[in-house]
Protein 1
Amino acid sequence: MTGSPTNSFEEALESRAQAVETALARLLEQRPLDGEIARPARLLDAMRHGVLAGGKRLRPFLVMESAALFDADGEAVLRVAAALECVHCYSLIHDDLPSMDNDDIRRGKPTVHRAFDEATAILAGDALLTYAFDILADGATGLPAATRLDLVLGLARAAGIGGMVGGQMLDLDAVRVRPGEAGIVTLQAMKTGALIRYACEAGAVAGRANAADRERLAEFGSAVGLAFQLADDLLDVTGDAAQMGKATGKDHGAGKATLVALHGQDWARRQLRGLTHQARTLLEPFGKKASLLVEAASFIAERRR
Amino acid sequence: MTGSPTNSFEEALESRAQAVETALARLLEQRPLDGEIARPARLLDAMRHGVLAGGKRLRPFLVMESAALFDADGEAVLRVAAALECVHCYSLIHDDLPSMDNDDIRRGKPTVHRAFDEATAILAGDALLTYAFDILADGATGLPAATRLDLVLGLARAAGIGGMVGGQMLDLDAVRVRPGEAGIVTLQAMKTGALIRYACEAGAVAGRANAADRERLAEFGSAVGLAFQLADDLLDVTGDAAQMGKATGKDHGAGKATLVALHGQDWARRQLRGLTHQARTLLEPFGKKASLLVEAASFIAERRR
């Protein structure tokens, strides 16, 4: 061990990202599965464009490291991680559409509707969302039926009307509605928080953790989700587009309400330190086994892009 | 019993439609489920607009009558039917979007993106698709975990890249690619056939049918799906917009390839008779119990709107 803790964390992040990238590429091969009639090439290409685009793969990392606390099976965990990433990437494809955020660039590449067209981007998102449930439910995931079902239900609830999609609706309405602090907290807990929370919980489910540990991981995920959003809002004010690989200052420019806009940058940085501490405390029972997850929380709170 | 068989069929269709409408209205109430943070009113309104819009509810009918062959539990079947209808309605909402079919009217009412806006319509579709898996996976469905998981996987595969969404992609490409007969058959089997086939199969699954009966119902569903599409293509040539509650002649006008365009109306009517006969033959082992399903096949083949 010669690297600093931070280097070994970044190496782990990179290595998990490669593992999930390989799993996603395999899941998005041309050959149809049992019961599929055909996989239209253009749709598959658009799905790949939206998914196999690199990125930090934070949600898969959280799934994998949470699962590792409970010595979960590697292949099962990789599929759960891939399913969550499909949902995350579908949400990016739809959020980027002209009628939503109207973004041309994502991770330094043209967005799916720019590389293909709007209809194809909508369908690619639809197909990725659907496929996420397929991946979890498939026997190839190797977990007992009740566990796979648990994962399906949790993902549906984290991603649906009462979670991510609902949060995106609130976000689109925010310019008009101008939510107060409580409204912003709800919006963010739904739009970005729910899926990050679920990534950590799903790792515990895949590892067949007991109820208390599962709840502990979910709470850890909530703290990480809050930190992620605060750091994002800070970056929107302080970051630059080249580092981010996407447009910045958009929320700030649009006068969109964020907690950073309400309370200022210093408050946000204090909050982030508190959340990092809370995340670390939650994982103390797992000892050294949880060190990568604890570092992930700090990395997310302190990230510069 | 004073009505003709057809009248009693239409009464049964209407009564099942009302039952599923009630179930859908209950599923789309404002109160969040466990694990949902909140249900944003605007998103919920758009989902309701797209779902609680009447219609024949053919897919739910097929689920319910297929399940009735195996004396399945009523509440479970209603939820399975509602989940399939959520998927069907999401697909209509997305298909109607300006970048797809650009339709302003659906079932005589403004389409969701006309009544709300494009972004809200996209999100309402996303939320309905996600919710379908929630409904199936939820313990409230009352079926054993393995059965619910089976339903989830089947729906994902029928609705996803190798089924309905893939078929919509092929359909959008059809004007450019001009598929031949084999291509049209694949397109239609995916775009409309897969979900109709699955409606019948899902009824058998909910009724915990044996493998042979399940396959028989799936084949019946395939025949019904083919008949549905052929009848639709005929109506596009012969129907009028007031009867249909939507624009007609669009496919024909766009020079879109259909089997009716390839082989003519007389051929199509002969095919429809053959499919109705095939459907009836497949259900012979179930005797009188299957009479409503047999009538449904005829109704779909002969429908005028």
Protein 2
Amino acid sequence: MAKPKFRELRRSYGFDEVAIVPGNITVNPDQTNIELKIEGFTFTIPVLASAMDGVTDVRTAITLSKLGGLGVIHLEGVQTRYDNPDDVLAEIARAPASEITPLLQKVYSAPIKENLIGERIQAIKKAGAVCAASVTPANTKRFAPLTAEAGADILVVASTVTTARHTSKSYEGLIFPKLRKLVSMPIIVGNCVSYSSCLELMQTGISAVLVGVGPGAACTTRQVLGVGVPQITATMDCAMARDDYFRESGRYVPIITDGGFRNGGDICKAVAAGADGVMLGSVLAQAKEAPGLGYHWGMANPHPALPRGTRIKVGTTGTIEQILFGPASVTDGSQNLVGALRTALGICGACDIAEMHKAEMVIAPAITTEGKFWQMAQGRP
Amino acid sequence: MAKPKFRELRRSYGFDEVAIVPGNITVNPDQTNIELKIEGFTFTIPVLASAMDGVTDVRTAITLSKLGGLGVIHLEGVQTRYDNPDDVLAEIARAPASEITPLLQKVYSAPIKENLIGERIQAIKKAGAVCAASVTPANTKRFAPLTAEAGADILVVASTVTTARHTSKSYEGLIFPKLRKLVSMPIIVGNCVSYSSCLELMQTGISAVLVGVGPGAACTTRQVLGVGVPQITATMDCAMARDDYFRESGRYVPIITDGGFRNGGDICKAVAAGADGVMLGSVLAQAKEAPGLGYHWGMANPHPALPRGTRIKVGTTGTIEQILFGPASVTDGSQNLVGALRTALGICGACDIAEMHKAEMVIAPAITTEGKFWQMAQGRP
Amino acid sequence: MAKPKFRELRRSYGFDEVAIVPGNITVNPDQTNIELKIEGFTFTIPVLASAMDGVTDVRTAITLSKLGGLGVIHLEGVQTRYDNPDDVLAEIARAPASEITPLLQKVYSAPIKENLIGERIQAIKKAGAVCAASVTPANTKRFAPLTAEAGADILVVASTVTTARHTSKSYEGLIFPKLRKLVSMPIIVGNCVSYSSCLELMQTGISAVLVGVGPGAACTTRQVLGVGVPQITATMDCAMARDDYFRESGRYVPIITDGGFRNGGDICKAVAAGADGVMLGSVLAQAKEAPGLGYHWGMANPHPALPRGTRIKVGTTGTIEQILFGPASVTDGSQNLVGALRTALGICGACDIAEMHKAEMVIAPAITTEGKFWQMAQGRP
Amino acid sequence: MAKPKFRELRRSYGFDEVAIVPGNITVNPDQTNIELKIEGFTFTIPVLASAMDGVTDVRTAITLSKLGGLGVIHLEGVQTRYDNPDDVLAEIARAPASEITPLLQKVYSAPIKENLIGERIQAIKKAGAVCAASVTPANTKRFAPLTAEAGADILVVASTVTTARHTSKSYEGLIFPKLRKLVSMPIIVGNCVSYSSCLELMQTGISAVLVGVGPGAACTTRQVLGVGVPQITATMDCAMARDDYFRESGRYVPIITDGGFRNGGDICKAVAAGADGVMLGSVLAQAKEAPGLGYHWGMANPHPALPRGTRIKVGTTGTIEQILFGPASVTDGSQNLVGALRTALGICGACDIAEMHKAEMVIAPAITTEGKFWQMAQGRP
């Protein structure tokens, strides 16, 4: 019997498994440029806040925009289901762990009020902030026009996995080229994780892509469905799609790595892997201004029949400004994320994000030296 | 001295080490077909319940069949050794951990009563359910005719490792082609884990193969004997044997991955690896109807001299229907397993199980992000 | 600057990282032959007891021999330093953990009494047992003649690392071909872990080789010196040296994997990797007859300046006979080791140890399924 | 669509992931030569003490020098900011964990007193010791002349990452060839981790290179910035740069692996990987004479806006002499480091450090056997 050629699987990597190699030249961090451009818009810092109810509401979207980033408000969450979402958010924060899944299932079964879509968008715009609003593919045809009408600047169409092609008997799939004609604003689409699905999305003409399936701290997609690709590999593959598409079309479609970040190191690694921007959930849920009141939970996931999220206690550590710009009062990398990114660029000799994409990385399991030393030390007088 | 060519070992993978990559097209989960066919029988869901005493008895076999799956009753367990097995099951559930191995050794040393074989099978058949009954290879010649006579639909011949060829001085090995002639029903044989042993079994004419040695939660075969192959590799290798055998013979012999499942994600991965069906132990032992009363233990393993099983407390979480079809009240993937499988097919753009076999997988260690985040958060106010 | 060709390291494997693949044919375990031959001696089971004071004394050496194996008594431990070693062993067992290293340093600084060498050997011989006695290379010239004179059957010359060549100004290195002429009995030498050092040792004419540096439960060589090769790789490499030497010389020199075993699975894996026999420390220190009274510690390692051992509590689980032949009352693989080995041979279709050397193995990290399941279950009612 | 060629990352290794393979010949440890030469200076042991405030002050620098090694005093730490640094060190040791980062930020914001630079250097010189003093690149032009003037023997220029080229608008980068002309003493520069950056540094004419970014027990650079390469790979790559540079120029520039060491095994592995010397932090912070009083913290890292260090309790275990030369009273490898290094050389048949560079290493995850055995044993009577 001839030896069969066994099926082989490719190895993928997450944040904990890689490290960035310093460059041969160093640059003063103050001289680095970390801008993110999405069609007409330029953000001075490449940071988006997740379209999750514990992270982004009207207030935090305004704050983020003033600090140079972008908050994305979810149009199918508590902000548009409740006139007074703060009461609901407080209820979620107060609920004991054992009751949280049924509570979230109940909270998210309330109907979306179309008038609130306009109100939330206008509140953000009135403050002079850039407004990005998020809808799911299934509801895009219904909500996108309302979003445009209310004056939103950027439309985000996102679900766990969104592809350029969808097969369904019950409704016609969302056709992105049609959507581009329907609304005139930039469209960010997600999420995807593979080279080919990212390339196909870019070819539909959309403005930016969200990268990430299953990595988030509040997401249990990998346990429930077995689906997901670790963020470093997902980012590297989608960055290659972006570069190939740019060579082919002349159009540069930025990719935004979305989910799984815990500290500045993770952000630096995503950028070294090829990300043009990052979308933060748990990390910003720790902000004093965060609507989650120290808690964070999966947004698309209070599914009535197959819930895939979980509520985690993230605590409250500092203001959004302190988390992004410091000064840090902790040394675990969860504060001064922008300073960390600039410092990493400097260490790698990168003047901007495009140069940082060329930084070398190695596979290097998360350091445990410190923990071990402690253990060793504890057994002693 | 010339450099020697060192012996090299192949890497194998288990559920925790892989993840499924979403496809380039998505399909509405409601439109997916997840049927499993075993010779004349078609099951609307590809789920078998293990031939283990904590999982399958007459009642759960009936329930499983009505829900579209198949429960396999073990003909050498408490169901055929005791007129009133429920008393024994309660005793096992009540026993303290320190006394469980001797108790199981005692319980399983009681003789098998041949009349009970017929009674159990007829009870299942009387309820209109499909009846599958399991025997070990050593007892097959003795019990298979009784099984056929009592009206069972499918015969399962299984032990830790079963091969097409067996060498023994004390008894003539089981010859599967002969067995096929002896009983006219479909025969499922297991367990095996390698390409060549699976191929040889298929070549004997049997109807389906159980794949898995050593992975189960209640199994300690790998510690005791060092033998076993992780389920993803075992499934991929046996799926290749099935496909090669189909090309060679034109006969499609389904493979059923048996053991080690903890959640929907594991099931989805097994199918992506090539499984036509899955056999669940611990997961179904958690059912309210489960005979194990919240406990689960190795079946073939209360060996009088070399026990290789262990009793684990799995708890009770919901009805069989809820575990299989939801709605899920937990987010860890242990409920609505069928919904999870359909959703994963949809995300991979697969209309049926055969298409899901082509889904891409990557090697991706189990996510620990959440755990780490918690740890990080706990050190804070 | 041209890309440098980086130094690459070879991956090595330990017991926890591999698993044995079942064969295409199965054999009745009762029909397997697991003999080990060392020159003129044939042992019905391939099990040696370590030359460690917590494992082998006169009584256990006799018991082991009667059961078909071989106990190796250390001639430089408490047995030859104290007329009444049992008192010293009891003192070691009673000492609190914080005082154990200085106590061992003191205990092992007492002088060796040459008369006790003869006494211990004769006590073993008088009982009709095969007697193997162990010395370190530095003391071999002094003690080997005494050992021969007292009637020992097999001489073991072992230290952490022993090579065919040694450079020293202070004393002439041990020359094995000379030693073979000096004493007429078989000589087992160790320890080594690499192909080339094993081959060189075999070429000196010695009778068997001990394989293993740094793996033992009571050994901290890898922490202290950074030196050591995991046992599966060490065994595979030395087995290749044995096979090459056999082809070259026609002389078959068995290799005995020494150290790191915790259960039957480890023993089966060592044999599948190429071992002709195994030398057990911690596992036999758990015997009711063990001189260590439930404790085990490194033998060569109470070094006055650089101690590399540690005392571990192994507990007491059963008699030597029960540990080797069962029946097992536990399911963790620590009892009925011989039964486990025969069963594994049967599952792999191997009639004897030589055939088991051809069993396929895969790289497969230790299973953690059970642990995880428990964790999962604990969060539930 | 053609299959894209995915970006691939190279695997890197740390101390815990490798092990040294014994040689085919052994050497008496007493005959090994472990000298380290840095331009005119010869050190009988290849050990440097880190330029960290918990490790090196005037007293420990003197002790180290007398024992044959080299302590490096940091000229930008508490020793030059405070007339009476011992008070400040005691305050750091007393501070509760929750207040340590702000305290360190405050302590290190006090100005450096130039007169103390001279005083500290002269105190070391007056005792007859070799004096090495460390500055950061940004302050080198200002402090280097003072250092030379005060009579220091060796200048160390070090920061997290130092390269031969630096881009900044605010100040002219440090030009090493110019610095060599400015001060006549040997210059050690660091830190770097890659082949090319190490080679470029050597080509500037400096005397030795410090290797290591992010490995230290008191360093959180990898979490905060994602930057760092594990020490074995960093050492192997820089050793290759050293060897290539030696072939190219005829000048041998030693490399000193700096950071992450916990025991003798780590030191032996660094040397086997190619290190000419090692720089120890945490391990020497455990000395009775250590200024840190049982604590250790990152030196360059009390950054006012982005702190990357942490204070860890290392405890106090023995004198510097005992840690370096034994006798060891513990068996975890943290004492008698020099004895361990000589023993490892002996086991590998290496007469000196250059020969030890040729020792074979294998990839071998840290042993956990002992831990597992304990766990196993605990569940028993």
